[in-house]
């Protein structure tokens, strides 16, 4: 499973760049989200 960071405005919930969110500590949140890996393709069963 891969993780990714995103920035979010605390008041409106809109996404913003992570660097901008890190600078604005009071008005922003930096979230770490888990991105699930893609499942293996299904084999054709007959």
TrEMBL record:
Residues 1-11, 19-28 have a biased composition (Basic and acidic residues). It comes from the Bacteria. Residues 1-46 are annotated as: Disordered. This is Uncharacterized protein. It comes from Advenella incenata.
């Amino acid at each position: 499973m891969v993780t990714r960071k995103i920035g979010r405005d605390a008041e409106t919930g809109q996404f913003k760049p992570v660097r901008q969110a890190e600078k604005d500590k009071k008005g922003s949140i930096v979230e770490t989200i888990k991105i699930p890996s893609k499942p293996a393709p299904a084999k054709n069963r007959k």
